[in-house]
Amino acid sequence: MSTKIDEWLLEILACPKSKAPLRLDEEAGELVCDESGLAYPIRDGIPVLLVDEARSIG
């Protein structure tokens, strides 16, 4: 699955748990926070930045 997020949007998004920047994992279709160890799904092109919806990558 390939997911595209505009660069300007990626620059302003932050992890709701750690407030750290997110990086895009296009292959997995997720936004990843290395600091908190969470990956947030992108559904229908919309990032779902809810800690309860994130999966642990740790």
TrEMBL record:
Q: Which Pfam families match?
A: Trm112p (PF03966)
Cellular component GO terms held in the UniProt record: cytosol
Top-level taxon: Bacteria
Q: Which InterPro entries match?
A: Trm112-like (IPR005651)
Q: Give the family, as the similarity comment puts it.
A: Belongs to the UPF0434 family.
Q: Which HAMAP family is this protein grouped with? A: UPF0434
Q: What is this protein called?
A: UPF0434 protein EV190_10957
